[in-house]
Design goal:
single chain, 423 residues, mainly beta, Methylamine Dehydrogenase, Chain H, five-stranded antiparallel β-sheet, 2 helices, 32 strands, globular
C-alpha cells in the first residue's frame, strides 16, 4: 500500500505547528493534516527533505506587520516587501519595496529558516538549528540585542541570551518580542509597559529574559506563544492558556465578566493589568471544565484580542470586539472567553487562526474565513459593509479555486498562500 507523503506543507504563522498536505494515493483528493511539532529536529527534516525540482521556490508561510510582509519559501529563504522606514524589511535600507526582495536564508544563516514573524515595525525568524534573528525597529529593545537602535539587516541573537536552548518559535508584538525555546521556556524583551513582558514590572528589557510561568509552585512547560499589541499569550503542553500584559478591552480573558464596554458607552468594566502570567480559566457551566473540556490546538493574538483554536470543536475568543473581529455577531468587547457557534464554519473544523489589528482569519481544511473591519477590503469579500461581524468564507473563485493552506493579516492588508505555494 502506497504511503501518503506529508512532507509538503506550511508552518502556520506564529505557532509551533506544521499544516501538511499531500495528494492521496490513487488521486482521490488532497489530505490535510495539522501536525504539532514534537521537536526542532522535525522542522529541520521537513525543510531539508528532497523535493521535486521547480522553476521557483514555493512559499510556505507569510507574516504580516503593520504595513509590510515577510514570506518564507520552502528552501528556507526569507523575502520581504512593503514599507521599510524602520528597517523592518531587513534589506539594508529604509526604502519601501513594491515587489518581494530576498532577505536571506542558507547563504546568510548557514541553515534554512523554518519560521518567520512580524510585529508592528520589527521582524524575526528562527532557523532549523534554533538560531534567532531579529531586525527592524529596536527603539524599545524589542530586537533583544542589548541596544535601542534600528537594525537594517537580520542580526543573530546569541543562543546564550535565551538560556543556551535552541529557539523553536518567536512572536512579535507592537514593541516587544516573545521567544519559546526547545525546553518549553518563554523569554521576552522590549517595552515592558502594562507588564506585557511578564517579569512583574513595567521596565524596558533590552535582552531576552526568562518569564516565570507557574502552576501552583511548579514551573510549566510551554508549547506555543503569541503576542498582541500590549499583551502576551502562552499555551502549555497540557492545554492551559496563560496571558499577561494590558487587560483593557478584555485582551487577557481573565475575568468572569461576560459582556462589557458596549460601543454605545452603556457599561464598562476596568480590570487590572497583569504583570505576571495568569491562567485563563473560563469554565463550562455544564462540565465545569476550562473551555468546555476542549483541547486547545493553537493560540493567536494581535491588537487587543485573542483566539484559541481547539482540536475538535469551535474556537474560543475574547478581547476587543468593536470591529467584529471576535466573530460573535456583535460589536462588543468580551472580557471572558466565548465559544464561537458550532455552525459558524458550516460544520467544518478550524485548523488555524491568525489575528490582525482589526480582524481575524480562520482556516479550515480548504477554505479561508474572515471577520472584523473591512477597511481597504482586507476581509476579501464582496460585501459592501464596513464590518463583518461573523466569520464569512471567501469564495474559492477569488483564489482561482485553489486551496488555502496559510495566511496572515496586518493592519490593512491580508496575504494567503495556496497549496502550490502561490501567494
Amino acid at each position: 500500500m502506497q504511503e501518503t507523503d506529508f512532507r509538503k506543507g506550511a508552518f502556520i504563522d506564529d505557532c509551533k505547528h506544521y499544516l501538511a498536505f499531500a495528494e492521496t494515493p490513487g488521486n482521490s483528493g488532497v489530505c490535510l493534516r495539522c501536525l504539532k511539532l514534537p521537536s526542532l529536529s522535525f522542522a529541520q527534516r521537513v525543510c531539508t527533505s528532497p523535493r521535486p525540482s521547480a522553476s521557483r521556490p514555493q512559499t510556505m508561510a507569510v507574516a504580516c506587520g503593520a504595513d509590510f510582509t515577510i514570506a518564507l519559501t520552502e528552501n528556507g529563504d526569507v523575502w520581504s516587501l512593503g514599507e521599510g522606514e524602520n528597517g523592518q524589511l531587513g534589506l539594508g535600507t529604509t526604502g519601501h519595496q513594491n515587489k518581494p526582495a530576498w532577505v536571506g536564508g542558507r547563504d546568510v544563516s548557514k541553515e534554512p529558516v523554518v519560521l518567520v514573524a512580524s510585529g508592528t515595525r520589527h521582524a524575526a525568524c528562527v532557523t532549523s538549528k534554533g538560531v534567532l534573528y531579529t531586525w527592524g525597529n529596536g527603539k524599545h529593545g524589542e530586537l533583544g540585542d542589548g541596544f535601542q537602535e534600528i537594525r537594517l539587516n537580520p542580526q543573530q541573537i546569541n543562543l546564550a541570551t535565551h538560556g543556551g536552548e535552541p529557539a523553536v518559535m518567536v512572536s512579535c508584538g507592537a514593541s516587544h518580542t516573545v521567544v519559546l525555546t526547545e525546553a518549553g521556556c518563554v523569554w521576552t524583551c522590549g517595552d515592558g509597559q502594562f507588564g506585557k513582558l511578564g517579569h512583574g514590572n513595567d521596565k524596558l528589557q533590552l535582552t531576552l529574559k526568562l518569564v516565570s510561568i507557574l502552576e501552583g509552585s511548579r514551573p510549566v512547560r510551554m508549547s506555543m506563544v503569541a503576542s498582541g499589541c500590549h499583551h502576551s499569550v502562552a499555551l502549555t503542553s497540557g492545554g492551559q492558556v496563560f496571558t499577561w500584559g494590558r487587560a483593557k478591552f478584555g485582551s487577557l480573558g481573565v475575568t468572569e465578566a461576560s459582556v462589557v464596554c458596549s460601543i454605545y458607552g452603556e457599561s464598562e468594566i476596568f480590570t487590572e493589568d497583569r504583570f505576571v502570567p495568569t491562567q485563563v480559566a473560563r469554565s463550562s457551566v455544564e462540565t465545569g471544565e476550562c473551555f468546555g473540556g476542549a483541547q486547545p490546538l493553537m493560540i493567536a493574538a494581535c491588537g487587543f484580542h485573542t483566539v484559541v483554536v481547539m482540536k475538535e470543536s469551535s474556537p474560543w475568543v475574547w478581547g476587543k470586539g468593536r470591529s467584529g473581529q471576535l466573530g460573535l455577531g456583535r460589536r462588543d468587547n468580551f472580557y471572558a472567553p466565548q465559544e464561537l457557534p458550532a455552525q459558524a464554519f458550516q460544520g467544518t473544523q478550524v485548523l488555524a487562526a491568525h489575528c490582525g489589528f482589526w480582524n481575524t482569519i480562520f482556516l479550515t481544511g480548504e477554505k479561508m474565513w474572515t471577520c472584523g473591519y473591512n477597511g481597504s477590503h482586507v476581509l476579501g469579500h464582496s460585501m459592501n459593509t464596513d464590518f463583518g461581524l461573523e466569520p464569512t468564507c471567501i469564495e474559492q473563485i477569488r483564489f482561482n479555486n485553489r486551496r488555502i493552506i496559510a495566511a496572515a493579516v496586518g493592519v490593512d492588508h491580508t496575504m494567503a498562500v495556496d497549496h502550490s505555494g502561490r501567494v
